[in-house]
Amino acid sequence: MANSLELSEQSGTAAASDERPWGRFTVLEEGSSYKLKRIEVDACRRLSYQLHHHRSEHWFVVQGTARVTVGAREFTVHAGQSVDVPCRVAHRIGNVGDNQLVFIEVQLGDYLGEDDIVRLEDDFGRAPVGGQTPPSKQSTQYPLPALEPPPTGARKVFGRSRRAYRG
Predict the structure, then answer these.
(1) Are 35 and 16 in contact (CB under 8 A)?
(2) Which residue, of 54, 61, 101, 110, is most buried by count of CB atoms within 10 Å of its CB?
(3) Residue 95 burial by CB count (10 A; 0-12/13-18/19+): exposed, middle or buried?
(4) Which fold has domain 3-142?
(5) In sequence order, which ranges of the chain are alpha helices (DSSP H)?
């Protein structure tokens, strides 16, 4: 994983960026109770199935198609749609397209550190075993499993057909 600080062209301040096995993220802005990120997910990759104890999240998809799990619900989200993830609710987002998925994440809470991630399942071996990540899985070399796209045909978003979301 590569950490970096890049100078934001708009604000002239340093923006934190990080490479992950599923893609990358850049912190666009941060305050005492919020953090704004641009997250890019590579084709057929997905983030950990995880939850947070101290923050909720709001995702706005700007490019691509995502398969999202929030609690017991699983659904597809397209560019221009958004998702709310409550605090302490298990969630996951994955890219089911051939192109990059890009979404803006707004984190809200009393603690926004990257260590407020409880991984329940992970395609890259980062979920803890017995409460700790095994030393063999702490390497920056991760396997790259493929995420299967959903079956073709009519797709449902929040239990409705896609047509319901087109103006």
Answers:
(1) no
(2) 101
(3) buried
(4) Jelly Rolls (2.60.120)
(5) none
Q: Are 45 and 147 in contact (CB under 8 A)?
A: yes
Cβ-contact 64, 140 below 8 angstroms: no
Cα–Cα dist 33/131, whole Å? 28
Do residues 55 and 109 touch, judged by C-beta distance below 8 A? Answer: yes
Domain ranges (residues) in the chain: 3-142
Neighbouring residues of 27: CB distance < 8 A, sequence distance ≥ 6: 15, 16, 17, 35, 36, 37
Backbone dihedral angles phi then psi of residue 163, each to the nearest 5 degrees:
-60, -30
- Mean pLDDT over 85-109 rounds to 97
Picking from 163, 50, 63, the residue whose alpha carbon sits closest to that of residue 115 is 50
C-alpha distances in angstroms, 118 versus 53, 84, 97? 8, 18, 26
Mean pLDDT of the chain: 80
Q: Residue 107 and residue 115: Cα distance in Å, rounded?
A: 14
Query: pLDDT category, 20, cuts 50, 70, 90?
Result: very high
Compute CA 49 distance to the chain's CA centroid, rounded to the nearest angstrom. 9
